[in-house]
Design brief:
heterodimer, A: 159 residues, alpha+beta, 6 helices, 3 strands, globular, B: extended, FSCA_dom_sf (chain A), MIP18-like (chain A), MIP18 (chain A), Cytosolic iron-sulfur assembly component 2B (chain A), chromosome partition (chain A)
C-alpha cells in the first residue's frame, strides 16, 4: 500500500489496496491466543466506503495501517484518519463511520479513540471533540438520516 | 350473358363513380365464380378508362388491378398478354394513374403463365416510363416486389437482358431511403450477385448505390410497427457487399477509408478512444481484432499487387500515433498503445517486420535508460507481448525470426534483468526468455547455455518461491526445446549442489541447515520440471534414484522431508513425461525395481535395527513411493505396466527377487504371510504392491489373481499393523472393483462377506477393526461399480451403527470413507470402474433406512446415526443437498444439539449452502435453528464456532420480516465471539454482526 502505484485517474489519487492478511499456522492452532493487533483493526476499517466516491477509505488513503494503534491488554484503540483535502466537509461523517464500525466490531471492553491526523484538516479540533463525545455520537445515531448514510458507508459493496 | 354484363357494369359504376371500395371484392368474386370474364370486365370499364378525368381512369385501373390481385391464378396466357400490353400502355398515362397500374403489373408478375418475352418488355417499359424514386413509398415497394417476382420465375429471360437490367435496377434504387424498401432492394442486389447476373460495366454503379449505405446508421423509431432492426439491414447489406469478388477492389478502399478516417480525423480519438478510454473489454477486444483483421487483409493485398504502399502507410499511421507513448516518462499509455501495435503485429509477417523494426530499438533503449525496476518490468512485459504476438503469426512459414536483428540486445536485456535483485523483474525476464526460446532458430546455443547458467544461479540462491517457480517453469520450457543442453549443463550442476554438505556442520547453525534444505528442495523440483522429454528423464531420474540410494545407505545425509520430496518429483515426472516406450522402460525397468529394492532393503535392515535407521523405513516415505508406482502403472505403456505388476505379484507371493537390482536378498521371503513376531516392517510393503496392481488399465490382466486375493484377504483380516491391513484391504478392493462380472466374483464376495461378518459378530474376536476396514473398502469397490451384492453389505453396515464393540463412531465414519474420493485406489485415474452419480444413488436408496434406524435406535445410539447422515449428506453435490435437506431437517437440527463436535461441523457444512436459498420448511423451524446456532458459539472447537457464525451471517439474508424479531438477541449473542481468542473466529463474528446490524436499519437492508 505504501509504495502504491498511483493511477492518476481524474481527481482523487487512488492507492492500491493491500492484500488479504496471510493466514499463519498459529492462527489455525486451537490453543494459541491471537491478540488483537494493528492489522486486525485496520482490516476492520479499510473497507469502509467513502461517502462521496465509490471507493474505500483505504483506496483514498484516508486510513493507513501506521495510523492504527491498538493495545489489547489495556483495551484501547487509537485511530487517526486523514481527510483527502483540508476542507473536507465529510470529515465528521467519515470519523463517525469509523467509530460506529469499531463499536459494532470490537468487544465493549475497548475504549475507542478516533481523531484526525494532526495538521490535515482546517477544523480539526472541532471534529475531534465531536467524535470523542459519547453523548453526541449516540445522538447522531438516533438521527435516522445520519444513520442511513453511516450504514451505507458500512455496507459491503461486493454483496 | 346480358345479365352478366349488366352486373359487371353496375359493379364498375358503383366502384368508379360511387367510390365503394368493397365492390372490387364483389367484382373479383364475379370473375372467380365465372359470372363474367376479365375481358368482359375490361369492356365494362370501357367508359371509365377512356374518361377525360385522370382520377376516373385511375379508379378504373384500380378496380381491374384489385380484381387481378384476387384471380391472377385463373388467367389464360392470352388474357395475360392482352392485360400486359394494356398496362404497359397505361404507364405512359397521367401520374395519378401510375400507382394502380404498377399494382396491376405486380399482380401479373405473379402469374405462372407469363408469355415468353413479356417479362422483359414489362421491365423495359417500367424502366423507361417511370422514375422510380419520384414515386410514393408503397409504389416503390411495388416495383421492387415486381423485380423479385420476375427474378424468381424468369431468370433466363432477365439474364438475356444483360447489363441493362442491372442498370435499370441501379437507377430505380438510387436514392432509396426507406428501410423497408431498402431490405427489398438489398435482396434484389444480393440475387443479382449470387445468381450470376452479368454486371458488366455497371459493377461499380451497383457497388456505389449499395455501399453508400455503409456503415448502416439506422435506429428504429420507438414504436416501429414493422420491426425492422439495424441488425437486419446490416446483414442484408453485408451479404451484398461481400457477395462477389468483383466488389473487392472498391470495397477495400472503402473499409480502409472508413477506418482510416477515424484514426486520422480523431487522432487517437475514435478507434483508440475505443481502446483507451473504454472500460468494456469486449469493445476493446473487438477493436483490436478489427485492427488485426485489417492489417492482415492489407498484407494479403500487398502480396498480390506487389506495392507495399497501403500496408506501410496504414502502419505508419498507427506507429506515429502509438510509438511516442512507448517513450513517455511516466509510461502511462504504454499498455493501450502496445496492445494496438501488437494487434497489428500479430496480423502478418510483413506487418510484424515493419512494427518490430520500428518499436524494438526504442523499447530496448528505454529499458537501458530506466533505473526504476517497475518501469523496467513494464517495458519487459511489453517486449514479451510483442514476441508472443509475433509467435502467433509465424506458425507456418520457416522464415528466420523477426527478432534476429535484436537477438543480441534482447538477450542482454533479459540476462541483465535476471541478474537484477528484484523478484518481479526476474519473473518477467524468465517469461521473456521462454518466448524467445520458442522463436524457432533465434537463440544460439551459447545463448541457451548462458540462460541456463542464469537460471541455475537463481535456483541456487533465490529464496522467493514465486521466482523459483517461474525459473523452474522456464527451465522446463528450455528443456522441451534443447534437451541436450539441459542434460549437459543443468542436471549435473543441480546434482552437485544437492550433494554438497552444508558448511560449518559442527556448528550446525539452524538457518544454514534450513537454507541448505531449501536449495535441495528447489533442485528437486527443478529436476522434475525439466523432465518432460524422455531423453531428459533418462538423465534426471538416475539423479533422483541416487538421492534415495544415498539417503538409504547414509553416505550423504538426507532428511525424511527431502526423501519424500524426491519421491514427489519422481511422481511428477511420471505424470508429465511423454508416454513413449523409452520413458516406459525407464520407469518400469529401472525406477520401480529400484524403489522396490530400496524399500525392501530398508525394511530388512529395520528388522536388524542397528545404528541410525534409514529414512526409507518411515511410513511417509513409503506412502510417497506408492503414487510413483501407481502413476507409472496407470499412465505409461500398458504392456510394460503389466510386466511390472506380474513381477510385483511374484515378488510378494513367491518371494521372487530376481528382477531387483543389488540382489542380496534372502530367498523365499513370504511378504504376504504373517511375519515372525508379527513384525510389520515387511508386511506394510503391501502398499507398494497395491500401487502397481490396482492402477493397471482394465485391459491388463493381473496374474495369479485368485491366489493373490486370498493372500490379501488373509492379511487384511489378521495383520495388526494399521498401514499393512489397510493397504491389503485397499488392494483387495481395488482388484475386486476391476474383476469381471460373473460367478467367480460373486462367490469371492460372498466368501469375504461371510468371513468379515463372522469376525464382526464374534464378541471375542481381536480383529474387529481389521474386518471392518476390509468390509468398508469392499463395499466401496462394489458401490462404485453398482454391483448388486452391495446391498447385503449396506445392511450390515447399518446394523453396525448400533454396534458398541467397534468403538464409538467407527461405523459412522466409515460412511464418510464410502462417499468420498480415494486418492490412491478406486478412482478414475487408476482406471477403476466408477459409475456416475454413485453417491446420489447410495443416498436415495438408503435415506429411508437411515431415518428409520434413527427413530428406532435407543437414545445413546442416536448420535451414530446422525453422524452417518451428516457424513453422507456432506459429500453429496450441493444441488442434491438443497433438494433433499427439507426432509432431513429435523434430524439435522437434532444433530446440532448433540455433544459431538465432528457432527456439528459436518452438519453445519451441510446446512450452509441451503441457507442461501432457504426452503419454507427451514423458515418454519427458524426459532429452533437460531437457538442451536447461538448455542454452538460456545463450542470448544474453533472450526465449529466459525461455521456456526457463517450460518448466522447467512440467516440475516432470510426474508426480513422472518428474522427481524431475532435481531436484538442475535446481536447480543454475537458480542461474545467478538472477543474470541482466535482471530479467525473474530473475523467471522465481525462479519455476521455487521450484517445483523444492517438488518432493518435505515440505509441497511
Amino acid at each position: 500500500m505504501s509504495e502504491g502505484t498511483r493511477l492518476e485517474n481524474a481527481n482523487p489519487v487512488i492507492f492500491q489496496r493491500s492484500g488479504d492478511r496471510v493466514q499463519t499456522a498459529s492462527e489455525e492452532d486451537e490453543d494459541v491466543h491471537d491478540p488483537i493487533d494493528d492489522r486486525e483493526i485496520f482490516d476492520l476499517i479499510r473497507s469502509i466506503n467513502d461517502p462521496e466516491h465509490p471507493l474505500s477509505l483505504e483506496e483514498l488513503n484516508v486510513v493507513e495501517q501506521v495510523r492504527v494503534k491498538v493495545n489489547d491488554a489495556e483495551s484501547t484503540v487509537g485511530i487517526e484518519f486523514t481527510p483527502t483535502i483540508p476542507h473536507c466537509s465529510m470529515a465528521t461523517l467519515i470519523g463517525l463511520s469509523i467509530k460506529v464500525k469499531l463499536l459494532r466490531s470490537l468487544p465493549d471492553r475497548f475504549k475507542i479513540d478516533v481523531c484526525i491526523t494532526p495538521g490535515t484538516h482546517a477544523s480539526e479540533e472541532a471534529v475531534n471533540k465531536q467524535l470523542a463525545d459519547k453523548e453526541r455520537v449516540a445522538a447522531a445515531l438516533e438521527n435516522a438520516s445520519l444513520l442511513e448514510v453511516v450504514n451505507q458507508c458500512l455496507s459491503t459493496r461486493s454483496i | 350473358m346480358a345479365a352478366d354484363s349488366t352486373l359487371a357494369l353496375s359493379l364498375v359504376e358503383e366502384f368508379v363513380s360511387g367510390l365503394q371500395d368493397s365492390k372490387a371484392k364483389d367484382a373479383a368474386k364475379g370473375v372467380k365464380d365465372g359470372k363474367f370474364t376479365v375481358l368482359q370486365l375490361v369492356e365494362a370499364l370501357g367508359s371509365s378508362l377512356t374518361s377525360s378525368q385522370p382520377h376516373t381512369r385511375a379508379r378504373g385501373v384500380l378496380l381491374l388491378s384489385e380484381v387481378l390481385q384476387e384471380c391472377y391464378r385463373d388467367l389464360t396466357e392470352r388474357e395475360v398478354e392482352v392485360l400486359i400490353a394494356f398496362y404497359e400502355n397505361r404507364l405512359k398515362d397521367h401520374y395519378v394513374v401510375t400507382p394502380p397500374v404498377l399494382k396491376g403489373l405486380k399482380e401479373l408478375t405473379k402469374c405462372t403463365n407469363l408469355p415468353p418475352g413479356s417479362a422483359v418488355s414489362m421491365l423495359r417499359s417500367v424502366f423507361q416510363d417511370i422514375h422510380v424514386q419520384s414515386l410514393m413509398l408503397s409504389e416503390r415497394a411495388c416495383v421492387y416486389s415486381m423485380l423479385i417476382n420476375i427474378m424468381e420465375t424468369r431468370e433466363a429471360e432477365l439474364k438475356g437482358l444483360g447489363a441493362d437490367f442491372v442498370f435499370g435496377f441501379v437507377q430505380s434504387m438510387d436514392g432509396e431511403r426507406d428501410p423497408r424498401n431498402l431490405l427489398l432492394a438489398f435482396q434484389i442486389a444480393k440475387n443479382l450477385i449470387h445468381r450470376g447476373y452479368e454486371l458488366g460495366k455497371f459493377t461499380e454503379e451497383l457497388f456505389e448505390v449499395t455501399s453508400c449505405y455503409f456503415p448502416i446508421d439506422f435506429s428504429p423509431p420507438p414504436n416501429d410497427p414493422h420491426g425492422i432492426t439495424r441488425e437486419e439491414l446490416v446483414q442484408a447489406l453485408r451479404a451484398v457487399l461481400t457477395g462477389t469478388p468483383n466488389f473487392a477492389e472498391f470495397l477495400l478502399p472503402l473499409l480502409i477509408e472508413k477506418l482510416d478516417s477515424d484514426v486520422q480525423s480523431a487522432k487517437l480519438d475514435s478507434l483508440q478512444t475505443l481502446v483507451f478510454q473504454t472500460s468494456s473489454e469486449r469493445i476493446e477486444s473487438a477493436g483490436l481484432a478489427a485492427l488485426t483483421a485489417l492489417t492482415s487483409c492489407l498484407s494479403r493485398s500487398v502480396l498480390s499487387s506487389d506495392s507495399e504502399d497501403s500496408l506501410s502507410t496504414f502502419l505508419d499511421f498507427i506507429l506515429t500515433d502509438c510509438k511516442h507513448h512507448l517513450c513517455e516518462p511516466d509510461l502511462k499509455l504504454v499498455w493501450p498503445s502496445a496492445k494496438l501495435l501488437q494487434a497489428a503485429c500479430s496480423a502478418s509477417t510483413s506487418a510484424s517486420h515493419i512494427i518490430t523494426a520500428a518499436v524494438m530499438p526504442s523499447l530496448l533503449e528505454q529499458y537501458n535508460n530506466r533505473a526504476q525496476c517497475s518501469h523496467r518490468r513494464t517495458l519487459l512485459e511489453v517486449v514479451q507481448r510483442f514476441i508472443h504476438s509475433v509467435k502467433n503469426c509465424q506458425s507456418s512459414d520457416n522464415d528466420e525470426s523477426v527478432f534476429l536483428a535484436f537477438r543480441e540486445s534482447l538477450c542482454g536485456v533479459v540476462f541483465s534483468a535476471l541478474s537484477e535483485n528484484n523478484s518481479s523483474l526476474q519473473i518477467t525476464a524468465t517469461s521473456v526468455l521462454t518466448s524467445l526460446a520458442q522463436q524457432a532458430g533465434l537463440l544460439l546455443e551459447s545463448d541457451i547455455e548462458l540462460a541456463l547458467d542464469h537460471l541455475t544461479r537463481l535456483l541456487l540462491i533465490e529464496e522467493d518461491d514465486r521466482v523459483s517457480l517461474a525459473v523452474a517453469e522456464c527451465a522446463g520450457a528450455l528443456a522441451q526445446l534443447h534437451p541436450a543442453l539441459v542434460i549437459s549443463k543443468l542436471i549435473p550442476r543441480l546434482k552437485n549442489e544437492m550433494y554438497t554438505e552444508p558448511m560449518n556442520q559442527d556448528q550446525g547453525e539452524a538457518s544454514e541447515l534450513h537454507s541448505h534444505h531449501a536449495v535441495r528442495q528447489r533442485c528437486l523440483s527443478a529436476l522434475a520440471a525439466v523432465s518432460i522429454q524422455p531423453s531428459v528423464v533418462q538423465e534426471s531420474t538416475p539423479v533422483l534414484l541416487e538421492v534415495l540410494r544415498s539417503a538409504h545407505t547414509g553416505d550423504v545425509s538426507f532428511s525424511v522431508d527431502e526423501v519424500v520430496l524426491t519421491c514427489r518429483s519422481l511422481q511428477r515426472i511420471a505424470e508429465q513425461v511423454q508416454d513413449t516406450e523409452e520413458a516406459g522402460r525407464c520407469f518400469h525397468n529401472i525406477i520401480i525395481p529400484h524403489l522396490l529394492s530400496l524399500a525392501l532393503q530398508a525394511a530388512l535392515q529395520g528388522e536388524g535395527s542397528s545404528g541410525t535407521p534409514s529414512p526409507l523405513v518411515e511410513e511417509v516415505v513409503l506412502s510417497a513411493m506408492v503414487p510413483v508406482i501407481s502413476t507409472s502403472c496407470s499412465r505409461l505403456q500398458p504392456t510394460l505396466a503389466g510386466q511390472t505388476a506380474s513381477r510385483a505379484v511374484s515378488l510378494f507371493l513367491d518371494g521372487d527377487v530376481s528382477f531387483l537390482p543389488d540382489n542380496s536378498f534372502p530367498s523365499h521371503m513370504q511378504l504376504l504371510k504373517k511375519q515372525e513376531g508379527d513384525s510389520w516392517s515387511l508386511s506394510r510393503l503391501v502398499c507398494l504392491l497395491m500401487g502397481s496392481v490396482c492402477s493397471l488399465p482394465r485391459s491388463v490382466e493381473v496374474p495369479q489373481i485368485d491366489k493373490l486375493l486370498s493372500a490379501l484377504e488373509e492379511m487384511s483380516c489378521t495383520c495388526s499393523h494399521p498401514l499393512s491391513y489397510t493397504s491389503a484391504a485397499k488392494c483387495f478392493a481395488g482388484l475386486v472393483n476391476k474383476k469381471p462380472q460373473g460367478d467367480s466374483l460373486d462367490s469371492l464376495i460372498q466368501r469375504t462377506v461371510k468371513r468379515v461378518c463372522s469376525e464382526l459378530d464374534s464378541p471375542s474376536s481381536s480383529v474387529h477393526t481389521q474386518a471392518f476396514t476390509l468390509m468398508i473398502w469392499v463395499s466401496k469397490a462394489l458401490l462404485l461399480r453398482y454391483h448388486p451384492l452391495f446391498t447385503t453389505l449396506t445392511d450390515k453396515l447399518f446394523s453396525l451403527l448400533d454396534d458398541a464393540g467397534l468403538g464409538p463412531m467407527a461405523a459412522a465414519d466409515g460412511f464418510s470413507l464410502l462417499m468420498s474420493d480415494s486418492t490412491d485406489v478406486l478412482n478414475r485415474a487408476c482406471h477403476a470402474d466408477v459409475r456416475i452419480m454413485y453417491r446420489q444413488r447410495f443416498f436415495s436408496e438408503n435415506k429411508a433406512k437411515l431415518v428409520q434406524g434413527f427413530n428406532a435406535a435407543p437414545q445413546e445410539k442416536k448420535p451414530n446415526y446422525l453422524k452417518a447422515l451428516s457424513n453422507i449428506v456432506n459429500k453429496l453435490p450441493k444441488q442434491v443437498q438443497v433438494t433433499e435437506l427439507p426432509a432431513l431437517l429435523s434430524l439435522l437440527l437434532e444433530a446440532l444439539s448433540g455433544p459431538d463436535q465432528d457432527i456439528h461441523l459436518t452438519t453445519l457444512s451441510c446446512l450452509e449452502p441451503v441457507l442461501v436459498n432457504p426452503p419454507q420448511v427451514l423458515i418454519q423451524q427458524l426459532e429452533a435453528l437460531v437457538n442451536r446456532l447461538l448455542a454452538l458459539l460456545c463450542s470448544p472447537a474453533m472450526s465449529v464456532r466459525i461455521a456456526s457464525l457463517s450460518c448466522i451471517s447467512a440467516l440475516s439474508y432470510f426474508p426480513v420480516h422472518e428474522v427481524l424479531p431475532f435481531r436484538a438477541r442475535v446481536l447480543r449473542a454475537l458480542a461474545k465471539p467478538l472477543d474470541d481468542k482466535k482471530r479467525l473466529v473474530r473475523r467471522e463474528a465481525v462479519q455476521a454482526r455487521a450484517q445483523w446490524f444492517l438488518l432493518g436499519s435505515p440505509g441497511g437492508r
